[in-house]
Structures are given as structure tokens and as C-alpha cells.
Model the fold of this input.
Amino acid sequence: MNTHNVPVVTVVVAAGSGSRLGARLPKALVELDSVALVRRAVDALLDGGVSEVVVTVPVGHEEAFREALAGTGSRLVHGGATRQESVRLGLAALAAPDDAVVLVHDAARALVPPEVVQRVTSAIVDGADVAVPVLPVVDSIRSVVGGGSEVVDRAMLRAVQTPQGARLGLLREAHEWLRRDGVEVTDDAAACEYRGHRVALVPGHRDAMKITEPVDLVFASALLAERKNR
Ligand SMILES: Nc1ccn([C@@H]2O[C@H](COP(=O)(O)OP(=O)(O)OP(=O)(O)O)[C@@H](O)[C@H]2O)c(=O)n1
Ligand SMILES: C[C@](O)(CO)[C@H](O)COP(=O)(O)O
Done:
């Protein structure tokens, strides 16, 4: 439920092919325990309090997405050639006012818990320009330099998840600037940072892992089974 006095809206980017997953279908339509990843992602955002949902979809799969999202009130728009382009097209399709909180979420992070959605929303309502959920890095990290490598202090590193939040007007403007300048970034926090905005970090969650390779579906299925015992 949204307890804030501004609308909270979302773009769920689902237009990728999922080449690393290697399924017959676009990745967002692949089912996890009989429910499409995109449906799980949209349901989690609705549980977290969003009121308007735009989903970017690949050309040629509109009907399958419509079926997967039946009853959610989602609007579908075609995505672009990159995630960044899909986000820009999705933002353009939202009807909410510029001061609405917008959350951009990867359909591939299908198991994001609603409390992460709420944390990101609250950070924006409380005044952050941009908010992203993060987790500490658990592996030792090396940076490849010249012919060798060197240790990086992992205490300083965080792995970034979605949803990423901002005010709708601010995020639209950031993406327009990237397009005008021909700059590619990997996420929406970096898009806002390009325009000089400050990024706030909130705690992410292991369940918001990005389903990328076939083994990730096995992990995700195990997480779902474990959730029933929580
Ligand atoms: N042109 C694109 C590319 C990606 N995405 C979305 O961005 C999210 C993160 O991308 P990723 O998980 O890397 O998905 P794919 O690009 O589909 O994967 P791959 O690189 O394995 O092809 C996904 O929900 C994906 O559907 C999108 O909407 N439009
Ligand atoms: C947005 C993201 O999921 C944050 O970790 C990530 O940057 C997407 O990158 P990808 O290369 O499109 O998977």
C-alpha cells in the first residue's frame, strides 16, 4: 500500500531477449513455478504500493505479455534496442505528474520483496534525488591492471539492484540528456548522476537477484520454496 501523498509509478523493463538464459521465449515470459517472471515482478511492485505500471516488451510478443499480465492493469509499450532505450520509452509512456515517484525495475529481478520497493520509495519521498538498493560484495575482488591484477578493498563496494527510484520529471530529463549526448550507462542511478544528482543507497535483498543464466532459475526456485518457510 502507498502511504505517501504522491503517486508511486513504475516502468518494468522486460524487452530484453535473455540471450544468456537461452530460452525459446523472451526472458520475462519464462515461468518460475508456473508464473512468468514479468508477472512476479509486477505483482511485487503492486504489493509495494505502485499505482501505475508501464511494461516495456519486445516486438512480436505483445499477446503473450498481455496474457501474462492479465488483471494487473499494466500498460505495454515496445522497448528499445538497449535497456537504457527501453527505460526512456517506458518513462515517456507514464501519465503521472513530474513530481510522482517513479521506480524503474528489471523484470529479471522477479523476486524483489515488496519491502525493498517501499524502502526505495521512502528514500525519494524523504528527499533523496535517486535511490538504489544495494548489497555488500561477498567475494574477494581483484582489478585487472596492465599484465597483472591487484586487490580491491571490497568493504568499499556494493552490488546494485533494482528498483531504482527518482522523481519522474528528474529521471525523464536525465534520460533525455543521455540520448542527446550519445552516452550509455548501465542503470538509472548512473543516468541521474550524469546530470549531477546524488545517489542514496538503501539495503537491497538477496531475493532481488537478477535471473541471467539458466542456473539462476534453480536458485530462484529454491528461494521461493524457502520463502514458504519464513
Ligand atoms: N533492450 C532491452 C534490454 C533489456 N531490457 C530489460 O532490462 C532488464 C535487465 O537486462 P538483462 O537481465 O541483462 O536482460 P537481457 O538483456 O534480456 O539479457 P541478455 O543480456 O542475457 O540478453 C531485463 O528485465 C530486460 O528485459 C529491456 O527492457 N530492453
Ligand atoms: C540495472 C541493473 O540490473 C543494476 O544492477 C544492471 O545494471 C543491468 O545491467 P545489464 O547489463 O543490463 O544486465
Residues 83, 106, 160-162, 186-187, 210 surround LQXTBERG (ligand 2) (CB under 6 Å). The chain has one domain: 8-227.
